Amino acid sequence: MGSSNLARMRREYLKKKGDGELKGENYGKAVAVYSEALAVEGAGRDGSHLILSNRSLALGRVGRFAEACEDARRALAIVPGWHKAHWRLASSLRGMKKHIEAVYEYKRCYDALGDEKAEEMNEVAKEMRRTVFQCRREELADLVVRRLQLLQDQGRIKAPETEDVSDEEKIEAAFRHIKASHQRGNSDENSSFYQKCFEWHLQDTLGESEAYAIRSAIYCRAKCLLQAQLDAKRAVASTQQYYASYKSSKSQHGAAMMKKYSDLAKAYFQLGIAYTCEGKDHTDVDLVEGVKCFTQACEYNGHDDEYQSKLKEQSDQLTPEQTQRVRDLLKEAQAGEYGQDYLFENVEEEELQVFELDAELTFNGATHRDLTAAAREELRKVFAKELQCKSLLEVQLSWIRKQDEALMIGLQIHAKCSEGDSRSTLVKEFAEKPSAAADVKAMLVGAEALRHLGEKLGCVSFDLRDMTQDLHSKQVSENFEFSHLVDGGAASAAAGEDEAALPSRPKTDIELPYKLYRLVKEDGSPCERADKHAFCMSRVYYSQSDLPQEVYVQLCDSSLRWRQSSDEVKIILLQVPPGLKASRDLVVEVLPDFLSCSHRNSGKVYFEGQLCRGVIPEQCLWEYEGDSGHVTFYLKKMNLELLSKSHQHAEMWWPKLCAHHSEIQWDDYEKDYSDLPSEIMKQHANREEQSKLLNDLEYKERMKKEQLQECDDLRKRLRQERLAQMRVGIVEAIRS
After folding, report:
1. Which of 410, 505, 569, 729 sits in a 20 to 30 Å window from 417, CA-based?
2. Closest Cα partner for 362 from 429, 441, 283?
3. Are 636 and 613 in contact (CB under 8 A)?
4. pTM metric for this prediction
5. Rounded to whole angstroms, how far apart are CA atoms 669 and 551?
6. Alpha-carbon span 635 to 607, nearest angstrom
7. Are the beta carbons of 17 and 33 closer than 8 angstroms?
8. At 422, is the pLDDT very low, low, confident or very high (cuts 50, 70, 90)?
9. Which of 402, 384, 401, 403 lies closest to 393 in space, CA to CA?
10. Considering only CA atoms, which of 292, 300, 356, 294 is closest in space to residue 327?
11. C-alpha dihedral over 144, 150, 153, 155, to 10 degrees?
């Protein structure tokens, strides 16, 4: 038997032994046995990828994720595309908190499995989803920006043409957009950015229109308003183009059209945001175009409160001339006629006629407050019922304006009917009736929500026209608003020369935070950025048990990270080499206002600086970890500020570590006051107790007053009931 065969047999024996240790959860022994198996000389590379994969698993179980990653990569080098090696690598990266790289490795594992292994694919998808949901919002923003860049590289969306910023600025802008989206109350896990990002990366479900809309939102935050407007227009045009295929589909027409209206509302709303997201003084802001887009969003989806509030907020800033300009733009865009998509159905097949009735109602002495959302909805229902409309979509408010002391409302009503049928006659008679004003007033007064408004009705006018031919021509035409931005041909070719030019920087730059420091955990992994509050408020903790995870400030040069409590400053030096002997190689100096650490022989300085405030050297400690090389200082604060202002605990909080460092923002992380001096902690406890007693007394007093008020209200109500009974009795006695 040859030596190579003996080597292979020994390797196989050691692999089986390692597998046994792995199954017995003796991970340390398994690592040692697998290492011995890999060290066998003359065994070749056969089966080594299996040993590397198993050792990667064992290393991950004992927390040695960096070594586990290396073994997984070596296994992939031997067998490229092996799904199990991708799985091991993804799990190791996840253990190292490298969530973005882990997501992409899970995706490679998912693709390598193939459709025949459905159960394993589902397991990979579950782990990939968990990894995405473990991402910090900055990491999620990075994933979104990468996905948009991939679509751009694939040619599925166009590259920025007018303005652009760096990837770092895009990620910060995406982070702010995601944060704002979550703060608006989007608690539905399945519709959150985390779920969407998971689906985008697993199934590649990010479509062209949604990609443009998201990129527009990111550019809004990055202050690239011109590019944001262009992307939002492309989102509108892409949505129109996508749903154009449903025109000939009868089975899906209704559902598809409602989904189209919702998607168009989102796209137009984003376009309105792109026109108005900065102040009025910004040269790229256009309030007229913004209000026009918000109006279109509300017409496509009138039930969204956010659309309505944004429309009202921006409309209040318009002058009368600008308001008229909005009306003209809406008329040009045919914004009030989105219901015509519904009218397209069966027009040619059943030889139907479509009439358009424009109604103008004048209410004397009425104001915009009288026309509430309920009143608008009821007004449409009244006319739809009177004219026998098959859908409420056939009745739309086309415009509202205030003229002198009157409120004028425009209605646009569509009637789809066969030539000569009863409904055609009904619509014509209604428009030509001499007593139309009286009939409309009776209709409005008869509705509860419109009674007050109907009593103020003045004059009414109608304009009826046959729009069947217009619909036929529109049905043939594929033109829609911004269609030139997605169509090929002449328009795109004409723009080809401009696309070669590099986009410019925006007129104002987005402010990037944490340029000089960043917030990390004790092991150096980034932590989730805290949500900022008004007036730079920060939560404080007086109990050790309530403290959240410790947050450290790490300098941009990665030389140290530090944190503080009310009584202590903890500093970890990161650039001291491992393997030194502290007493022999390190020189440490701790003075009341100065700290330094250097190498005794070479003189290399690892840290030196004037402290921001004083410490007590006799009560300060330091230690050196030979394995990692970290030198940790525990500095006892003097806290002289508390001697004169013992009730103002924030006075002892250091704004920075050294005098030459930049200040840390006050609300970057919560404050640890759990180790205040015992005398001051007692004062605080006494004040809290007194405050609690005072609050209890105020609560009891308030409850007593409420009870007395309830008794008094009950007495008055009973008295009124008795008086009413007496009056009824007197009236009956008089009648009898």
Report:
1. 410
2. 441
3. no
4. 0.74
5. 7
6. 15
7. yes
8. confident
9. 384
10. 292
11. -90
Query: What is the per-residue DSSP string for 672-732?
Result: E-TT--HHHHHHHHHHHHHHHHHHHHHHHHHHHHHHHHHHHHHHHHHHHHHHHHHHHHHHH
Characterize 496-512 residue by residue with b for buried, 16 or more Cβ atoms within 10 angstroms of its Cβ, and e for exposed.
Answer: eeeeeeebeebeeebee
Q: Dig out the tokens for 161 from the structure.
A: 């043409």
Instruction: Give the position of tokens 């070594």.
Output: 67
Residue 459, C-beta contacts closer than 8 angstroms, at least 6 positions apart: 362, 437
Nearest of 574, 611, 568 to residue 589 by alpha carbon: 611
CB atoms within 10 A of CB 408: 17
Res. 273: pLDDT tops 80: yes
- Residue 716: C-alpha distances to residues 305, 309, 713, 721 (Å): 41, 42, 5, 9
pLDDT digits (tens, 9 = 90+) for 571-600: 999 999 999 999 899 999 999 999 999 999
DSSP string, 409-441: EEEEEEEEE-TTSHHHHHHHHHHH-TTHHHHHH
- The Cα-based distances of 498 to 244, 402, 494, 503 in angstroms read 29, 45, 8, 10
Other Cβ atoms less than 10 A from the Cβ of 372: the count is 12
Note the pLDDT of residue 69.
96
Paired residues of 599 in beta bridges: 586
Starting from the edge strand earliest in sequence, which strands make up the sheet with 560-564, in order? Answer: 517-520, 552-555, 560-564, 568-573, 631-636, 621-624
Q: Which of 8, 6, 32 is nearest to 20 (CA)?
A: 32
pLDDT band, very low/low/confident/very high, at 187 (cuts 50, 70, 90): very low
Alpha carbon distance 675, 21 (integer Å): 46
How far is the C-alpha of 284 from the C-alpha of 277, rounded, in Å? 10
